[in-house]
């Protein structure tokens, strides 16, 4: 099995040592931990067919084998062989590809709780896990995973009333399904239009961050074209992660009266 470089291995060791406590080692606490993008959309993922399509990657990695490992209790031991290192072995950013066949969505349903618990353990060890859960209208929504997230972000394009309106039933459904969780329910504004203050007032949820509407960079990230664009999308996405992490740390410290630690689970 491929081994992680030392910096990522330290975070895995922290997760093994403290699976049930919000603790990290002093060395880990002084720097940001690894970031994991996990495609958890039951309708299927797009990384392998899009951004990662130019690479010759093994087909035995992704959310489906991780779900099986989580149910067996061996996810921590198998994780390094299931991820894709996006930084050429610097072990700072990883991807966990999603399903390649939407018909497999039903097979994930029994495992979402175990996957959520595993991601929460990584968070306590200093990782930041970003779980892309897709649209709530898809079959077999991962509610058990969402209930364990530190922050649940609803993407909204605030360009007009027509683009904002779909968020109303989505937020109502989330409030019904996640009433007893400690996680923050917030908005991710994509593009300009209605101000964050007005958007928050209309939808009765805070705006955690804003991302630029940058179609040229999005096209490259979708696997079309060459090169890695460093446009507005990339810059604002990085700031959005930092803003959401700060929101998680603030809420976590206020709720639990614990020291602010790196990491978190964002869905």
Give a topology summary:
Blueprint: H1 6-17, H2 26-29, E1 35-39, H3 63-72, H4 75-78, E2 84-85, E3 93-96, H5 105-108, H6 112-124, E4 128-132, H7 143-147, E5 151-156, H8 161-164, H9 167-177, E6 184-190, H10 196-203, E7 207-211, H11 215-221, H12 232-256, E8 264-266
Structural key phrases:
alpha/beta, 267 residues, 3-stranded parallel β-sheet
Short recap of the structure:
The chain is an alpha/beta fold and 267 residues long.
Explained architecture:
With 267 residues, this protein is an alpha/beta fold. It has twelve helices and eight strands. The protein has helices at residues 6-17, 26-29, 63-72, 75-78, 105-108, 112-124, 143-147, 161-164, 167-177, 196-203, 215-221, 232-256; strands at 35-39, 84-85, 93-96, 128-132, 151-156, 184-190, 207-211, 264-266. Strands 2-3-1-4-8 form a five-stranded mixed sheet, sandwiched between helices. A three-stranded parallel sheet has the order 5-6-7. A hairpin with a 7-residue loop joins strand 2 (84-85) and strand 3 (93-96). The chain is globular and about 45 Å long.
């Amino acid at each position: 099995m491929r081994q992680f470089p030392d910096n990522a291995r330290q975070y895995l060791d922290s997760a093994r040592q403290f699976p049930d406590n919000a603790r990290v080692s002093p060395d880990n606490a002084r720097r940001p931990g690894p970031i994991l993008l996990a495609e958890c959309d039951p309708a299927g993922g797009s990384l392998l067919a899009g951004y990662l399509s130019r690479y010759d990657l093994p087909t035995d990695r992704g959310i489906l084998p991780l779900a099986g490992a989580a149910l067996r209790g061996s996810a921590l031991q198998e994780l390094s062989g299931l991820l894709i290192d996006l930084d050429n072995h610097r072990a700072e950013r990883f991807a966990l590809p999603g399903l390649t066949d939407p018909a497999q969505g039903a097979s994930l349903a029994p495992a979402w709780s175990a996957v959520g618990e595993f991601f929460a353990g990584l968070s306590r060890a200093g990782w930041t896990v970003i779980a892309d859960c897709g649209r709530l209208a898809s079959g077999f929504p991962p509610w058990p995973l969402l209930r364990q997230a530190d922050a649940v972000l609803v993407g909204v394009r605030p360009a007009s009333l027509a683009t904002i309106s779909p968020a109303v039933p989505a937020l109502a459904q989330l409030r019904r399904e996640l009433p007893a969780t400690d996680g923050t329910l917030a908005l991710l504004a994509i593009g300009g239009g209605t101000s964050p203050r007005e958007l928050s007032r209309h939808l009765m949820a805070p705006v955690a961050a804003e991302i630029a509407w940058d179609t040229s960079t999005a096209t490259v990230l979708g696997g079309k074209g060459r090169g890695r664009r460093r446009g507005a999308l990339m810059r604002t996405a990085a700031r959005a992660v930092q803003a959401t992490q700060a929101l998680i740390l603030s809420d976590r410290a206020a709720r639990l009266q614990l020291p602010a630690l790196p990491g978190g689970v964002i869905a």
